[in-house]
Write a structure and sequence with these properties.
Blueprint: E1 11-13, H1 16-43, E2 55-63, E3 82-87, H2 91-109, E4 113-121, H3 124-127, H4 134-137, H5 140-149, E5 175-176, H6 182-196, E6 206-210, H7 213-227, H8 233-239, E7 244-247, E8 251-254, E9 279-283, E10 290-294, H9 299-309, E11 316-325, E12 335-344, H10 362-376, E13 387-395, H11 405-414, E14 417-421, H12 424-434, E15 438-446, H13 456-484, H14 486-489
């Protein structure tokens, strides 16, 4: 197979749907060329020394003005006159996302979009997809010789300078249109499959992170119940908003209350051993369902998973987890709504210096507070009986209690922190860094500074009493955010001076 030279020519479009179709055609042809060449390589029929290369599609726009039809929007427009470009990948996965970004660019700037073939090679690993394993189809010598025949991932360009607001393009080069170039996206799609055990096509736009399997077990139970058929009209209508539930191994359970699905019922099987950060997906037909991920313990895990989920451009992510209550007035089981973060985890310091403030986002904070009130029945001033708002400190030291009072408690007191955990500050900071709306609602599981340590019996009792309610609050918050619509959730607070146009 050879690449059709007609698809090497750039074309201009004023119809966003046709622009996406052009991206799809370019991508499909180049990927199929690589896959066919790889099959020949694996079979030993690719001519010795034959170099095989194919490139990502790109989108480019040149604008003479910086304008937007609605100044409330935080994305969809170029921040200054000039030429902007980005490479694109997996259009079948990002069809709706690309279409919306294209539509806004055309609407705000009036000019056409240019679609063509970039000079950024598609690494063979990414062309083969996240379910393919090179080692299974190649002998050791073939694995070693692969870079002689195909392009492999180039770490020199796989960085987050654009997201970090440190990228400085050459004066004659186009400015970036998106936070992530195509190879960076592809790398994360591969990593999501590895860490979470499900394909990226199943991830939804509203993401819950937790650090305990108890929450996941409760979520699994709720989702399976939702997939069961019912004759109750009101309950059936409620359940019909979701189409399927997907578990690690791409195990799909279809909703028996829905007659037509985007899923055919094909799927994998439950995994004998769960991946490092298993993900579970309560799906809606438009992708606006809820994904829940057990990220485990620690800020490194929190950074790892959010680094990769960010390329899917979710509309919101929230942390639901446990924390140490730092105030004597708090009780076990009380909730903590983070309005600020003391970042003592240090894992993001080189990308986002710790003196950069991480603001609370009004839309997310209001939704969380309303959800707590509705689920617990405490409203207004009474909400203070079970929930406290303030600064959450995030540390990388699980044994933080062993530090001396003078070296630790003084800083916690000066910051006015009300709780301490190991993930929330990192998740919020990466939300800020990647322009993904974020929030944190924690539950006090121990009070080490006041003699209440997290011991086995105490912890078990706490988990039984609080997990279901806490999860219900998180799910209700996501439903409230979904009702707001994406353009109202994505805050201008998260956008820098010279910002890429893509959301």
């Amino acid at each position: 197979m050879a690449i059709n030279t007609d698809f090497l020519r750039s074309r201009k479009f004023t119809d966003p749907d046709k622009a996406v179709e052009a991206v799809q055609k370019i991508y499909d042809m180049h990927v199929e060329y690589l896959r066919e060449s790889f099959r020949a390589y694996a079979a030993g029929t690719l001519p010795a020394g034959k170099r095989v290369s194919a490139c990502y599609p790109y989108v480019k726009i040149t604008t003479q003005s910086a304008r937007r039809s609605d100044t409330r929007f935080s994305y969809g427009f170029a921040s200054k006159p000039g030429t902007y470009m980005t490479t694109l990948t997996r259009p079948e996965l990002f069809r709706h996302y690309y279409g919306e970004q294209f539509r806004l660019l055309i609407k705000n700037h009036g000019g056409p979009l240019e679609i063509g073939v970039s000079d950024t090679p598609i690494p063979i690993h990414f062309a083969l997809g996240e379910d393919f394993h090179l080692e299974q189809d190649l002998v050791a010598d073939q694995v070693g010789d692969l870079p002689l025949y195909f392009d492999v991932p180039n770490l020199d360009i796989l960085d987050d300078e654009i997201a970090n607001s440190t990228y400085m393009p050459r004066s004659d080069a186009p400015r970036p249109l998106s936070l992530f170039i195509a190879p960076r996206v592809d790398l994360s799609l591969q990593r999501l499959r590895h860490y979470c055990g499900t394909g990226p096509q199943h991830f939804q736009n509203y993401v819950l992170f937790t650090n305990y399997q108890f929450y996941i077990d409760e979520f699994i139970g709720l989702c399976h119940e939702m997939m069961r058929g019912t004759n109750d009209p009101e309950m059936k209508a409620q359940r019909q908003q979701y189409t399927a539930f997907v578990e690690p191994g791409n195990k799909i359970t279809l909703n028996k209350n829905v007659e037509h699905h985007e899923e055919s019922g094909r799927g994998g099987e439950s995994l004998a051993r769960l991946p490092q950060m298993p993900a579970y997906h309560l799906k809606r037909a438009d992708g606006s369902g809820i994904t829940m991920i057990n990220i485990g313990v620690g800020p490194s895990n929190a950074k790892t998973i959010t680094d990769h989920v960010a390329v899917l451009r979710p509309h919101a992510w929230l942390m639901l987890g446990h924390c140490a209550g730092l105030r004597n007035s708090q009780r076990l089981g009380d909730y903590v709504l983070a309005h600020g973060y003391l970042r003592d985890d240090n894992v993001l310091d080189s990308s986002l210096p710790p003196d950069i403030p991480i603001p609370a986002l009004a839309e997310v904070q209001q939704a969380l507070e309303k959800a707590v009130a509705k689920v617990t029945g405490n409203e207004g001033y009474d909400l203070k009986k079970i929930m406290r708002t303030g600064t959450v400190a995030t540390t990388s030291d699980r044994n933080w209690e062993l530090h001396s009072f003078l070296t630790q408690n003084r800083r916690l007191s000066q910051s006015r922190a009300i709780a301490l955990d190991m993930e929330s500050g990192t998740i919020a900071a990466n939300g800020f860094r990647f322009r993904v709306p974020y929030g944190t609602l924690l539950c006090v599981s121990d009070k080490p500074l006041h003699g209440q340590l997290k011991l086995p019996g105490m912890a078990d009792s706490f988990y039984r009493e609080r997990v279901e309610q806490h999860l219900q609050i998180g799910l209700l918050t996501m439903e409230m955010l979904r009702e707001l619509s994406p353009e109202k959730i994505h805050s201008r607070k998260l956008r820098s001076f010279d910002e890429p146009a893509f959301q």
